[in-house]
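Example 3.
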Amino acid sequence: MNLNSHNSPDMYDSGIDGASTGEDTLRLIAGLPAPKGLEERVRRALRTAPRQGRVLAWPQVLRAEAAWVRATAAAAIVMVVAGGGWGVYSHIQPWHAGNAPAARVGAMGGFSGANAVRSPQTLEPPVVSPPAKSAVQSPMHKKALKKKAKVQPEQPAAQP
Amino acid sequence: MDFEDTAAASAVRQQAEEASLAALVDQYAGALYRVAFSVLRNPADAEDAVQEAFMRVLRHSGQLGEVRDHRVWLIRIVWNIVLDRKRRAKTRPETDDVADLARVLPSTGLSAEQMASAAQHHAQVLACVEQLPAKEREVLMLSAFDELSSVEISTVLGITESSVRSRLFRARNLMAGMLNHARGKARELESSSRTAETAAAAEEETR
């Protein structure tokens, strides 16, 4: 069903003619002829356009004639990838299960401590040097002590 | 050799695709141009949009066999292109000027005065169309194409047929209201200028 009011007015037509809704103008514009030679210009543009929007394309020489080159290249890529993988695998030391400590699993299951022993880090105690002892007194020292005792008078006894 | 057979088959397929694409260009380039021009209102931009649409078809030429209705499919492609361009460019269409409209739109058998008033009317209509909400505007513009049915418009816009009808109904009402308002204003301006002219003439006479 055509929607144009001048062709077949439908049930949703508001009863307003084309001129008052401006549809005559839109129809005039829609009916404008295409410029001459448009088809030819479009065809020319299509001929010069790249065929496929590819990121990587095979060279023209290798497209159809040497299709075996593609197979060879694909095989080479597979060989390189597989060889590289094998090289990495063979250089890694296999992991032995005997080296690892036995996992201790609790009675209730869950995570084990893996035989880890807790050693708390404490502060080091202060180092006290031993007191210096003068075992033998020199005679000069003894004299000096006597002299000191003479100079100091005896203190009076405390009064009751 | 197997590879050679495959290459020959692909070459034949490519030739067939090119032939079918050329046929599509011959058949629908004009219609696509008119759709593009109705939105862009600029001949060069409309032609560019048509070329871009066929470029997209070329890139997906392998899917041509799966398309049921080539005409609607192509119109949908070009419609999306022109809407995208218009959104990005935000430029004033070339035919917004009254003089350009008079040059572009057909006006055979009209006097110079009639041509000028017709161009003014068209410019007024296009200005009102631009003021419509996007959904209503799109339906109204596509409905101007005689060859598009409501089903085809719904396919192009990706909506249901009932939505097309309701939007068209709203668009027509809005346009009628806007155009009446614009005409009323124009009449007021005209009458006020006439009154001023007569007053000036009367003043001169009294002097």
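Chain B has a mean pLDDT of 82. The domain at 1-91 of chain B is CATH 1.10.1740.10 (Rna Polymerase Sigma Factor; Chain: A).
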